[in-house]
Amino acid sequence: MRSQLKKLRHRSYNLRAHYKIILFLIILIIINLLPKNLYGDEFINCKLNNNQKIDKIEIEIYKNKKWIENNIKILISNTRTIPKKLRKRFKGQVVVNYIDGSRCILKAKIRQNGDFKDHFNYKNNSIKQSLNVQLSNGNLGNIISFKLLLDGTRGNSEDEIFLTELLRELNFISPRSQMIKVRVNNLNAIMLFQENAKKELLEYNGRIESPIYESNENDYFKFLEKFENNNLTNDEIGFNHSLNQAIMGLLARQTNAKWASRSATHSKISFDALSDLNLVYMNSVKSIKDDQFDNTFLGNQNKQNIINLEKYNLILKAVNGEHALISHNRKFYWNKIEKYFEPIYYDGNVNIIRNDNIKLNLPANNHIKVALNELEISLKNLDFKKFRKNLNIRGLKFTEKDIEKKLSIIFYNLSKLRAEIKSLSSESLNSNEKLNTNNNIIKGVIKNKKKNNPQSVFIFKKEKQKNEFLICKNFDECKNIKIKKSDQIKLISGELIKNNQEYIYLGYYPYLKTKIKDNEFYLKKFTEYNINFYFNDGIEFKFDKNKEELNIFQTKPEARAYFFKSDLKNLNINFQGYKNFDNLKFFPFDFRGLTGCLTFYKSKFNNVNLKFENSNCEDSINMINVSGEINDIFIKNSYSDSLDIDFSKINIKRIEVQNSGNDCVDVSFGKYNFGKLDLDKCQDKGLSVGETSKIFVKDIKINNSSVGIASKDGSIANFLKSNINNVNTCLESYNKKQEFSGGYIKVDNFNCSNFIKQLSFDSQSKIILEN
């Protein structure tokens, strides 16, 4: 009997184990059948500006007790600034509540924002404070890093929002801003939401990713932290004297320094631009009274660049936002293609009122008259309907009369500036001033730095050497040192400290600027055609006026050519590449950031045909910020991508691509209308649609590719007809990057054969087949 019971018991155990295995297999099958995110954990996409209006944002700190303790330390700190050590990040969450009752919850890292105590307000036993928020698992309106600022800490908040939208209309880099109700640990406030200067800001403003620089304020705030928060004036406590010394040793740092780690070319671009900017600082900033930059230097002595920079200064003065022009408040974007430092708007302390005491900073540039004329024309031609719509999206319910009133004040202040300009003597204007690389200037900065920070050491880069530098106690006391790549990132970000010594990067020894001219471009103007054609060594070309044909020949691998601000009409452009794909030096791009062997930048098309064979670049043809219509594009034998288009609005009747090492066609950040696409032998995707693009294609044919069509990161792709053959995956749609949502594909007449997988999409994305 016992033996029979034992057998039954064993049989029961076996059945249980068997059922567990079956259940596990069923669950595994179900999981595999469910839509997946192709690139890891899914990101949450919360809406910011659309029909789903935000009612309130709630900020919750997980370790609330420690957050309160930190706030008490800020409150009792007897300093005029908020100590940096008390601005550490705490884990928490952002709860976005919408008017319709729905919610969206994001994980985040949150810290106290702001340098001065105006960002920290203690009243009636409660604390209201400005916050800096870094989202961890998604985005809010495609933004993942932003500030929530106490009302008034950016001047007049309404005017701040007005200005940020106006600057973007004038094609300056400006953060998205709006007023939002916020609840922080059960305390309510109306706060200014403003995105930080990150990659998403650049992309929203139509710029390709590149180094972002700002003033390195380490010394500046070390000085300020030692002054007690008492009733004495700045002069009485020696504040202004110390501030002057800190400013005279002011240098720059790169805020997105990780960008430099992507390749040797990324690194060189970062170090070169930072070296140039440090030299600009040394030549421009000499005292509190002389605390603004010379646009001749920032513009690299290019007339149009200088005019753009002068327009930026003038509009800021006209809105009484000169606070944004003070040296230690400045932020810059290194425009790799145009080779100059574009301003990124930040902290203007704006107040749009009439100012009869408005003054120019001297010396002024002699292009300032042209800049003022161009600025006034742009303001007069402002699209009121579009501008008003954008203001309404940001929460400003302005009428056209409200806009006219603001602009009338701006025009009045500009008229005062015009009178100032007319009264200037020729001695007060400069245009040919060049950067001074006199060693005495560099020695002076080092001397001031030593006063600010006696333990600091100074790093110079050695030309032609990737990881070799000079470490100097003073300008003439140097020795060789190797710095590993991870420390180089800390160095250019101003965060490399070893043995209590701060490592301060200056530039190339001894004059900061490099003497090596890499990848220099030459300009050929076809004046009667309004074409600006740039090319470097290894490019030859012939222009046949009768045939209206430009033939370009690449005689050296990776040689590049590009069109800039050109009106391309009734023209055939043919590019014949050099058949060599070995030992590529400039991949993914050259020192100007050009990914294409042939690039079209800020140009217009009308009745143009393009033909390209044998590419040895990241892209055969790259188009950036272009518009218009193209008839035919034919590309054959590409090392990587064949056609790559960014930040554009363009119609193309026909595209044919044969044999591409990566994607045949890749579009991002734009609106695209294509007729017929014939794509064959694409190693990766036939057509890749990304980064909030909208595309319409009448007829697409794809053969012998890994993926037929991919739509990702907030893109919408519509097709009337598709024929896809011999692919691994016909259609795929997904979310890849944190700052975006999923993708969308709709095909009216869908045909796909010889595939492994027909459709692939994640939970944020959608694919619709009508037939």
Description:
By secondary structure, this protein is an alpha/beta fold. Among the domains are: 1-34; 439-446 and 454-508, no CATH class; 524-637, no CATH class; 663-771, no CATH class. Helix content is 25%, strand content 38%. It has 14 helices and 41 strands. The strands form seven sheets. The protein has a 19-stranded mixed sheet that branches. A hairpin with a 2-residue loop joins strand 21 (497-498) and strand 22. Helix 9 packs across helix 10 and helix 10 (368-380) packs antiparallel against helix 12.
Give me a quick take on this structure.
The protein has 771 residues and is α/β, with parallel strands linked by helices.
Q: Which labels suit this protein?
A:
alpha/beta; 19-stranded mixed β-sheet; 7-stranded mixed beta barrel; disordered N terminus
